Amino acid sequence: MPNNTSIQIHIDMSTLNVLPVDPTPCPYYDEQQFVTKADAAYQATLLALDKGERIKSL
Questions:
Q1: CA separation for the pair 13, 45 (Å, rounded)
Q2: CB < 8 Å & 24+ apart, contacts of 34-38
Q3: Looking at the whole model, is its pTM more than 0.70?
């Protein structure tokens, strides 16, 4: 029987600083910056899980 693990991830995009971006009056001036940051956070989470690291809520 396969062992399935389900996780739920909540990311506060207002405080996420994964990639350097040009300063703008609004944290997510355009949709591309938002998508880039969300993808980087997702990839970092997958990498941490792959290494067996524990994910803590901040």
A1: 14
A2: 37/13, 38/11, 38/13
A3: no
